[in-house]
């Protein structure tokens, strides 16, 4: 089994290196095909591993070599395929394979075709290191690796110029990439502190060792560990207040948004909380905080999606909101529910993004949904698949989202956190509304694009073919709920529901009701031309449209003062104090050298005089300082 | 009675004469003479002190200095002759090809 594990891990790396060989060359179709094939190989091995683990319950471990051995610190380069990581491996490799195939079509006219595939495969490799590592250090390496690849891919079109925030809220791809990187760096500091704390107390970073010893520590130490690790998770999963980068990350190519900023990388935070469940199950207070923050983000992000006009940003806020749902489940101790929603969300959100990519392709990178409309006629398949994804996202039976999202609401109700439940319930309504607002504005109604002179066309067949498996999974994945639960709870703790019978049915009914009414409202309103223009003048619209003014506040409170501080440190401190001191010393030496140069006249007679003067000085010194006998 | 002091005073006077010669003379040959005087001033001091302490090391050292001075003069005069053949004079101020 070890060879399957290694294939899963290293096939994307090989693909990445292969594509990198042609990095600066003009487009070569072979790079896209080879990376896709290697990823497919990786996916197949992951599935074989999944069946192996499922049938034999044997956890596959591979230790490649000792990585860091200093004193008592011993970190091997080891990988593990257990019940949790194997689920992640299958999800990641499946979505990546499809996104790779899709990208062959999406990036067909791009100059950086080869470079793109190199980055994309490198991302998958890093993500696999993250999920498969058997220790926190390896997880951190993968964590940083995906951060790097995310930076490379958000800033993929780095040549685009900066714009003002009014024209483009994310300013430019390179700006957005840096923002994402720096935000994550802030969170990673928390994560690193968590790792130090764990090592300090346990003396090891291996999951097995750490989790075996976790109940021996003082509760305050465990609480700190949990908090620090969660700070890391907040950055990667874009939870409030480190959430602004995710919407700006939409500057990257759309397949990147589908793979990294929807399906895989942003769920790494949820994965971390699930992976560290022995720590979090000791500290329910921190868990409750995580859940509350998650519920807040679920509503907060959904509210921003309600009014946005940018096709990709709406889906990005939706991702943010769904990550909130996952954290609610993980925070309340229903780890398998969180993981289940993570998986189903990966399928339908990737599908939604790829559909958005088709629309963008057809509309020549136009993102304003008010310039679209009626696209369903020319892009029938894209429309069908995006509707499927939206239904799944809204949580309508029998689509995947119904099973996973409903379960999260059930968990919140079951643990008597009625406020959280209510927030999630409202969030579910908002989700349904904005999803179908998007569908209505893009695919139905008046064909506004004609006014702007667009000639949309359906995407390539293989792009649609790459989306089809995701569409199927978005429909059927929910039915695997029980086998999924049975499988992962062999490793993760079970969650016992106390609510049974009629109450559960009532809950499901309520959730479905609000989702359906959200959809109905969106369909009703936008089939009649949407809301009136007056609505755009209201304070609440402006607040939501400007993302609660948080980017502006961040700029005023953090970025501007920091830039000013840097400027002062540069102009006043560095130039006037540090540089001046160094220059002064150099000046003295230079001038004294210039003055002393006359000594070296080359005239022997003069030099002899200098010698005699030196001799006399030495004589005087000898007389003055000779010890008295 | 001639004491050690007299010898040392003689040595000091000779050394001073040599020093003045080194400082003032521009002729390279004269410079050599001045150097020889300085060396011999030291030799006198060495010999006198050696006698005073009854230790032969000082006299031995004087012999060394004489031998080394002889060889140094041989080499130096050789160079000086070559220089004279090339340039036609041995004035110190003309003996300069580099400028500081």
The number of helical elements of chain A comes to 24
Please tell me what the overall shape of chain A is.
globular
Oligomer status: heterodimer
**Unreliable sequence segments of chain A:** none
Radius of gyration of chain A: 30 Å
Q: DSSP strand (E) fraction of chain A?
A: under 5%
Evaluate the radius of gyration of chain B. 17 Å
Structural class of the helix and strand makeup of chain A?
A: mainly alpha
User: How far from one another are the termini of chain B?
Assistant: 53 Å
State the largest interface. Answer: A-B, 12 and 12 residues
Strand residue percentage of chain B: under 5%
Strand order of the largest sheet of chain A: 1-2
Question: Main sheet of chain B?
Answer: none
Helix and strand pattern of chain A: HHEEHHHHHHHHHHHHHHHHHHHHHH
Briefly note the structural class of the backbone of chain B: mainly alpha
Q: State the helix count of chain B.
A: 3
Low-confidence spans of chain B: pLDDT under 50, at least 5 residues? Answer: none
The mean pLDDT of chain A is 89
* DSSP summary, beta strand count of chain B: 0
Distance between the termini of chain A: 89 Å
Report on the architecture of this protein:
- Chain A is built from 24 helices and 2 strands.
- In chain A, strand 1 and strand 2 (73-81) form a beta hairpin.
- The model of chain A has no long low-confidence stretch (mean pLDDT 89).
- Chain A has helices at residues 2-21, 29-56, 83-106, 113-132, 136-154, 173-202, 207-213, 219-236, 244-248, 254-263, 268-275, 277-280, 284-307, 311-331, 335-362, 380-394, 400-414, 418-443, 461-476, 481-488, 502-527, 539-545, 550-596, 604-625, and strands spanning 60-70, 73-81.
- Chain A has a two-stranded antiparallel sheet with strand order 1-2.
- With 629 residues, chain A is mostly helical.
- Chain B has 100 residues and is mainly alpha-helical.
- Chain B has 3 helices and no strands.
- Classes of the chains: A mainly alpha (629), B mainly alpha (100).
């Amino acid at each position: 089994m070890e060879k399957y594990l290694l294939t899963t891990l290293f096939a994307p790396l090989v693909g990445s290196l292969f594509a990198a060989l042609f990095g600066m060359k003009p487009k070569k179709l072979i790079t896209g095909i080879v990376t896709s094939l290697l990823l497919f190989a990786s996916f197949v091995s992951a599935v074989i591993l999944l069946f192996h683990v499922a049938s034999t319950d044997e956890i596959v471990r591979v230790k490649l070599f000792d990585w860091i051995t200093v004193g008592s610190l011993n970190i091997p380069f080891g990988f593990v395929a257990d019940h949790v990581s194997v689920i992640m491996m299958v999800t990641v490799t499946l979505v990546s394979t499809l996104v790779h195939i899709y990208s062959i079509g999406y990036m067909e006219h791009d100059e950086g075709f080869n470079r793109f595939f190199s980055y994309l495969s490198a991302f998958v490799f890093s993500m696999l290191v993250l999920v498969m590592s058997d220790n926190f250090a390896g997880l951190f390496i993968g964590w940083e690796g995906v951060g790097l690849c995310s930076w490379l891919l958000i800033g993929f079109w780095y040549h685009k110029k900066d714009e003002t925030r009014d024209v483009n809220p994310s300013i430019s791809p390179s700006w957005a990439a840096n923002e994402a990187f720096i935000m994550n760096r802030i969170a990673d500091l928390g994560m690193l502190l968590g790792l130090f704390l764990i090592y300090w107390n346990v003396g090891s970073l291996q999951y097995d060792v750490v989790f075996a010893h976790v109940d021996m520590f003082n509760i305050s130490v465990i609480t700190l560990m949990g908090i620090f690790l969660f700070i890391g998770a907040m950055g990667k999963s874009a939870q409030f207040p480190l959430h602004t980068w995710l919407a700006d990350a939409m500057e990257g190519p759309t397949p990147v948004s589908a793979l990294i900023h929807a399906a895989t990388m942003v769920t790494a935070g949820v994965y971390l909380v699930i992976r560290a469940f022995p720590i979090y199950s000791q500290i329910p207070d921190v868990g409750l905080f995580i859940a509350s923050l998650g519920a807040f983000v679920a509503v907060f992000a959904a509210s921003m999606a309600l009014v946005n006009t940018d096709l990709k940003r709406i889906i990005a806020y939706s991702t943010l909101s769904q990550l909130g749902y996952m954290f609610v489940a993980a925070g309340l101790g229903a780890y398998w529910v969180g993981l289940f929603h993570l998986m189903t969300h990966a399928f339908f959100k990737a599908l939604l993004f790829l559909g958005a990519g088709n629309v963008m392709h057809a509309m020549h990178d136009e993102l304003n949904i008010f310039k679209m409309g009626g696209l369903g006629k020319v892009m029938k398949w894209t429309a069908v698949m995006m509707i499927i994804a939206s239904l799944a996202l809204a949580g309508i039976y029998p689509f995947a989202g119904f099973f996973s999202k409903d379960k999260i609401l059930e968990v919140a109700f079951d643990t008597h956190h009625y406020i959280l439940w209510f927030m999630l319930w409202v969030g579910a309504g908002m989700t349904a509304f904005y999803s179908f607002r998007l569908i209505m504005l893009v695919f139905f109604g008046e064909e506004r694009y004609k006014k702007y002179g667009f000639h949309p066309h359906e995407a390539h067949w293989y792009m649609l073919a790459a989306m089809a498996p995701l569409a199927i999974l978005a429909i059927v994945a929910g039915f695997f709920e029980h086998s999924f639960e049975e499988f992962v709870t062999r490793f993760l703790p079970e969650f016992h529901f106390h609510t049974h019978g009629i109450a559960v049915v009532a809950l499901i009914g309520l959730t479905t009701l609000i989702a359906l009414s959200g959809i109905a409202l969106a369909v009703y309103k936008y089939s009649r031309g949407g809301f009136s223009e007056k609505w755009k003048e209201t304070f609440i619209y402006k607040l939501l449209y400007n993302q609660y003014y948080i980017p502006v506040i961040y700029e005023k409170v953090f970025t501007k003062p920091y830039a000013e501080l840097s400027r002062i440190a540069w102009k006043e401190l560095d130039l006037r104090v540090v540089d001046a001191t160094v220059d002064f010393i150099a000046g003295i030496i230079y001038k004294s050298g210039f003055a002393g140069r006359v000594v070296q006249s080359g005239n022997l007679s003069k030099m002899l005089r200098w010698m005699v003067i030196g001799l006399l000085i030495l004589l005087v010194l000898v007389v003055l300082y000779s010890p008295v006998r | 009675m001639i004491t050690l002091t007299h010898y040392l005073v003689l040595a000091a006077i000779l050394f001073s004469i040599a020093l003045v010669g080194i400082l003032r003379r521009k002729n390279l040959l004269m410079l050599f003479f001045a150097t020889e005087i300085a060396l011999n001033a030291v030799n006198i001091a060495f010999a006198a002190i050696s006698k005073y302490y009854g230790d032969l090391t000082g006299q031995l050292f004087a012999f060394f200095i004489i031998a080394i001075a002889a060889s140094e003069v041989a080499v130096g005069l050789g160079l000086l002759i070559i220089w004279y053949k090339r340039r036609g004079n041995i004035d110190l101020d003309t003996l300069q090809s580099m400028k500081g």
